[in-house]
Amino acid sequence: MTLLEKYNRMVPRYTSYPPANFFDTAFGEADARRLISDDAGRRPQSIALYVHIPFCRKVCHYCGCNTCGLGSGRQVAPYMEALRREVDMVAALMPDGIRASEIHYGGGTPNVIDADTLISFNSMMMSRFAPTADIETAIECNPAYLDRRYADRLLDAGFNRFSLGIQDFDADVLRMVNRDPSALPVDRLVRHLQGSGASVNLDFIYGLPGQTPDGFARTMERAADIRPDRLVTFSYAHVPWLKKNQTLLDASRLPSADDKLLMFERARQILGRAGYRQLGLDHFVLPDDSLSVAFEQGRLHRNFEGYCSTSDSVYAFGSSAIAQLRGGFVQNVKSVTDYISTVSGGHLPVERGISVNPKVRTVGIAIEQLMCNYRLRWDDVARAAQCSPHEARQACNAFGPQTLADMEADGILSVSPDGIDVSAEGRIFVRNIAARLDPLAGTQGKRFSTTA
Ligand SMILES: C[S@@+](CC[C@H](N)C(=O)[O-])C[C@H]1O[C@@H](n2cnc3c(N)ncnc32)[C@H](O)[C@@H]1O
Ligand code: SF4
Cβ(165) to ligand 2 under 6 A? Predict the structure, then answer.
């Protein structure tokens, strides 16, 4: 049996731990208030903030994000007002003086909000949570609606990270998925943003209808020439039973599984030759990027917004937003209408969540370390989890019946008393390795969701 056959198992993606299917709808507003008070009560040095703007001018037929059509735009003002109220409610639970190291506007399409409104909202956030000197202010933009004036207003207001959804440079592919191309030539836009001191990320998707290995390779060549600081190649997730908009795609034009693999492999080669370093499955960064440096030092982290170099708690606002706090996760309601009405009624708009005990948190820290850095050190896990290295190993099944001996024999990792190192061949199996450390693996939902 080949290694691919042996390890071809259903394992969680581990974008959070516990995975989101363990979040429980019995978790309510009182639980959320307790998690926020506990997290902020320990006076963290800094926190990260996430603000969700769900609106899109046109919904792309492939989209799997939590979005809604902008329509006439009449929901925007009440939504922004609800965001302010939610921020006030959360800030009231926190001691003064907590600083923000990062604020991320995601969506949907945050750049459907006019620049004045967004800048004034951001100033309000900075008055509630004092920014650190090197705060990262990041925004996801659809470049079809991004003009120079809008970009300059944000740059002047201190926005210093721009993530642009390109998906593919081929106009036919974009047409097929109901998406408009960039309003400005992407190379000029990126040069302008970088020239103004901002870092730029470009998003791409492979596996869309009409895409071919040759066509996507051309897109990657062009992307590498533009030299964004970061680049993500998402594998298209086709889940039409969950996302009704995807039923509008011409499924007969979806590339085969082999072609999809080839698209990724060629992208990896092109970006590698152009000097990009691969992080995780789908992120590529220039060698001097802060994420590349963090990886080299074994301190890369991940939250729902992507890779980062801090392990700060994330306080999240807006419909569907997920807060990642020391004691667990809180997800807001997904419907924009429900979000506005719940917040207007003076309540936190909680849909589901989970409290985690210190043991589960320890496992989460170990899995995050392994997934991001392809290595873990029990000392580092113990320090972050505030336990002993022995307790960290115990929490992760490391003394249990599930040893890693067969994986070591397969050459995908090496184990030492200090920790675990994933080999170059083992990187594609990192989720399988994480699952061996995971006491919840193979269980479904709430059974292991524990209270603090
Ligand atoms: C919130 S959007 C980015 C900002 C902006 N709305 C845009 O489209 O340019 C986040 C990214 O998720 C990716 N994405 C959306 N739906 C996806 C799907 N079904 N499978 C894989 N990636 C997807 C796209 O690359 C998209 O740029
Ligand atoms: S890809 Fe971006 S613009 Fe398109 S529907 Fe999704 S969030 Fe909106």
Answer: yes
